[in-house]
Amino acid sequence: MGRAAPRPLDGRVVAITGGARGIGRATAQGCLRAGMQVAIGDLDIQTAERTVVELGGATIAVELNVCDRSSVKAFLDETEARLGPLDVLVNNAGIMQLSAFLDESDATAQRQVDVNVHGVLHGMKEAIPRMLAHGGGHLVNIASTAGKVGFAGAATYAGTKHFVVGVSEAVRGELRGSPIEISCVMPVIVKTELAAGLPDGRFIKQIEADDVAAAVVEALRKPRFEVFVPRYPVGPLTKFGAILPQRVREAVGRLLQIDRSLAAPDQSVRLAYEQRAATSTAERVRELKP
Asked: 3 exposed, middle or buried (CB, 10 Å; 0-12, 13-18, 19+)?
């Protein structure tokens, strides 16, 4: 049998959480170039509206707090009212606050779980019934290579991304035979504000947000579950590492400097991002209200 033809994307409706900047913005731009209609949801509605003006095309901005399921519902309701039935949801919103595990405050851990875990759960629970009702759709969950490997200095973040991978696999199993696709995107460190102050790896360099966006669009055209960015060597290395004994895996991680890639950031460079991430939930929504 021949390979399936790429799926057409022209006119399809995609909603992107955390779409005002970084990977979300790049993904919005990539989807627009593919002919899609794009809804950008973001806590920072002013930046989201500026992004819509800059990107142009069939794009809308909607204020969104992924930690609040009612806000996610309202985001998707408005998307469908203005653009049409939802075809794709990209669960992109996420934060990464770095510190040694024992130095991390409970509030910091809770914030990361709220955004990175509950934000994805809310998106999936609100999107799946809509997609089932109108005959199909595609869920794209932005995880990380930290969803496959534990990174020192980012224990809670890595835990939340392991969750994203696990819940994606489990829900994919529940939806097997349905017209809904699920993709789990696992990039290395991406050159966005979230990665401020982080060094390049010895063998695996930081990538651009556009690289992740291109991988997302490719997965929409040719669905697959595991989407490593870059595809090589990260995918094979991750799969090979999973079958190695723990000591060998850790030795390889030290050789590749994985053990240090998130453990010693330049905190002076990260300060602005860390401060914004520290007010990335309900309290920030209140601040943004007139």
From this structure: exposed
